[in-house]
Amino acid sequence: MRVLAAMSGGVDSAVAAARAVDAGHDVVGVHLALSAKPGTLRTGARGCCTVEDAHDARRAADLLGIPFYVWDFAERFTQDVIEDFVAEYSAGRTPNPCLRCNERIKFEALLDKALALGFDAVCTGHYARLSVVDGRPQLRRSADAGKDQSYVLASLTSEQLRHSLFPLGDSTKTEVRAEAAERGLAVAEKPDSHDICFIPDGNTRKFLTDRLGEQPGVLVDDETGEVLGEHSGVHGFTVGQRKGLGIQAPAPSGRPRYVLALEPVTGTVRVGGAERLSVDQIVASRPVWPSGEVLGGIAGPVECVAQVRAHGGTSPAVAELVGDQLHVRLREPLQGVAPGQAVALYRPDRTAGDLVLGSATITTTR
Predict the structure, then answer these.
(1) In this structure, are 110 and 224 located in the same domain?
(2) Per-residue pLDDT, 292
(3) Positive or negative, the Cα torsion across 366, 356, 114, 187?
């Protein structure tokens, strides 16, 4: 196959490209220039897709003996990921920018361009298992539970998955680093990027305030209606947040307060005790079925495992499609579940890796 290897400049994508070469594919490496300020450099493990990363990707491609290109996707990334991120927070929702980047950049914009140029598939360094059974893609958790990225890939369509390769799915991070060192890849010990790549200093509140300005409002006790303080914008908060609320007086019980709900129209941030954070019902919109079959082809309410965060936030659940909305009843309540997050559904399988049934965007919780 002709394979386009997306090379971020990190160890995972470099080893994934190397394995694609070893598999006998005709591989071309490409680095996506996503920053509108290409002179920006990585600071330790913060940020990605920088000039430094582009150089690291090129050196890896040279070592592998494959052609290498840099494609400018900065405008598309700004529109589909950064502006979407800002708009979602402004509306009182909590988006996952990594999920959106996979969905709209790597497996939409990049994949579309790759197919138009005659490539058969895009290869990435994601930790997830992918196979085809009876002509349908099956996306599963990776062998390395701590690095599993199936959650942020669960929004991909079956057609996108048919043109995707995830060579690292059966490996652990330790194995990948060891292999990179054996191959002589300079990125073998390079730190993983973390946090939000386009907010390298990690200050999300400042990033949003710089773009949305100050939008004063109040913090209100959800039980009593008492005004507890003021704030400069609901975009500075997310459901489940405990620190940085700006409330001077402690709760009568002496226990911490958490953000329970955001009301952007009135500028109200509702807060309360941890016990009021528990959620056992989720309604989500725009469901996507990676295999192409609704809930994996299982009729009626489906026993599954629901996940609401990239790492952690799982519960046994019962899921059902009602009209065009996904209804999920959690058997074990979860905390910090916010509108805008994705809920991914899995069918447990201890031997082959849990199978992804579908994903949708959370609209309401109870």
Answers:
(1) no
(2) 96
(3) positive
